[in-house]
Amino acid sequence: MPAGRNVTKLEYQAYSKVAIKTMSTIVNNAIGSAARSSSPRDSASRRPIHRDRSVVAHRKEAFVACEEILEEVKKKAQIWKREYYEGEDENEAEWKANT
Prior knowledge:
51% helix, alpha+beta
């Protein structure tokens, strides 16, 4: 966004069939990576929450994984956006690759 200009509207377009396939691949890769990095004990053991702070660590890892998925989608998915700025003629709005 250009400095000092407010976005008043966003419009998105996608090459849906390919974008969905790309996003599915990204999510499946993230799930596979998470499964390879965790041990059976992580999901199968029973531990009191008040004594084990690893629950918080797993939550943090999940948020980090979601952020990584979002960044990959922004880089690779076939999605474009059009930003409309305050005071700009709508015909001047340009399509931008999702980055």
